[in-house]
């Protein structure tokens, strides 16, 4: 249920409505816009009757939300959500490009790649310190040492850090070093983890599960949003179908569908959705044309020697061309690449 307050409703009137909702054992999520305040009611609303509020002063209307995902729905927030991460704008009219290696392998590899991403026009650095792999014998990441290297790369380049968190106990250490916690496809429905990253109030990049529907992705986002954590990005990374020509099937339809259903920023991963570097740039262009708010791309200075996902990783010069082409597509649809973050103090430009 959604209670829309009158434009001239006082803080006392808003607080009275909130108190009555909470008296029923339900949670309240406030959305304050330029013209109105919306009070979202989350929980088992069967215990609430609209006539409890009908005669309260300051209320303009009471509207049920038909979607099972309440807080993620455009019925609750009609305007696009946008926020900043260390000054980097996410959502709105700008397009962000996150790039870097699948795995942090060593200091030289990571710093070389980070500087190449910065030089090519990238806005944030991705890299896995904890790696969920299909085989238990495959490289599993460097753990906290990998996080330390990511933090060093940020100090040198100014690029914010996006890295995957795999379990609740990893959240505190990831928060010490990174700027965005990524929930991978395999963990999209790890509800304990979703609750915990929601409680952290840290920015979250939530990847769609390899066999998940769009509604299941939005319900997963609802777990994070239910804790008041509004800085959530949704990531389409390809789904599993009968087709084997590519690693996954890019659900390009998901971009405009998500943009119509939710106010949250939508990011496209053209690397995992294709599995082949030769297709990454084309799908990146398509994603921005379809309305995506950004990309997350795998880049490696020596992909032939990569310890994971080398076949889908772009070399720096190919990534630079991707950024150029994506910028042209963004301009064609009345958007633009986000400004790059400033270099840290003392780092030569």
Q: Concise description?
A:
By secondary structure, this protein is of the alpha/beta class. Strand 8, helix 3 and strand 9 (about 160-165) form a beta-alpha-beta unit. Helices cover about 35% and strands about 20% of the residues.
Class per helix and strand makeup? alpha/beta
As a whole number of angstroms, the C-alpha radius of gyration is 21 Å
Which range best describes the helical content: under 10%, 10-25%, 25-40%, 40-55%, 55-70% or over 70%? 25-40%
Number of strands: 15
H/I helix tally: 10
> Mean pLDDT across all residues, rounded?
93
Could you name the CATH homologous superfamily of the largest domain?
A: Aldolase class I
Beta-sheet strand percentage?
A: 15-25%
Q: Tell me the CATH topology of the largest domain.
A: TIM Barrel
CATH top level assignment of the largest domain: Alpha Beta
- Topology order in helix (H) and strand (E) letters: EHEEEEEEHEHEHEHEHEHEHHEHE
């Amino acid at each position: 249920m959604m209670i829309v307050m009158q434009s001239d409703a006082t803080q006392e009137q808003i607080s009275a409505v909130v108190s009555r909702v909470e008296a029923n054992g339900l949670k309240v999520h406030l959305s304050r816009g330029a013209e109105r305040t919306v009070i979202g009611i989350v929980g088992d609303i069967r215990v609430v009757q609209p006539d409890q509020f009908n005669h309260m002063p300051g209320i303009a209307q009471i509207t049920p939300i038909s979607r099972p995902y309440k807080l993620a729905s455009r019925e609750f927030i009609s305007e696009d959500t946008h926020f900043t991460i260390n000054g980097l704008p996410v959502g709105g009219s700008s397009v962000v490009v996150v790039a870097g290696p699948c795995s942090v392998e060593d200091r030289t590899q990571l710093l070389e790649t980070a500087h190449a991403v910065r030089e090519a026009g990238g806005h944030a650095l991705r890299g896995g310190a904890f790696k969920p792999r299909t085989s238990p014998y495959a490289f599993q990441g460097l753990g906290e040492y990998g996080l330390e290297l990511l933090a060093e790369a940020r100090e040198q380049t100014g690029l914010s850090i996006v890295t995957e968190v795999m379990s609740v106990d990893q959240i505190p250490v990831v928060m010490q070093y990174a700027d965005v916690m990524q929930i991978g496809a395999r963990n999209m429905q790890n509800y304990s983890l979703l609750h915990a990253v929601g409680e952290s109030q840290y920015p979250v990049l939530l990847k769609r599960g390899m066999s998940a529907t769009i509604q299941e992705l939005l319900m997963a986002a609802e777990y994070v949003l239910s804790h008041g954590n509004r800085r959530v990005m949704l990531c389409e990374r390809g789904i599993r179908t009968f087709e084997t020509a590519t690693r996954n099937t890019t659900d390009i339809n998901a971009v405009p569908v998500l943009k119509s259903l939710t106010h949250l920023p939508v990011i496209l991963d053209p690397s995992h959705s294709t599995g082949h570097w030769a297709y990454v740039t084309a799908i990146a262009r398509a994603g921005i044309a379809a309305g995506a708010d950004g990309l997350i791309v795998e880049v490696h200075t020596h992909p032939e020697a990569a310890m994971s996902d080398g076949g889908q990783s772009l070399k720096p010069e190919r990534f630079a061309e991707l950024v150029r082409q994506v910028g042209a597509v963004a301009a064609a649809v009345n958007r633009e690449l986000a400004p790059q973050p400033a270099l840290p103090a003392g780092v030569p430009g």
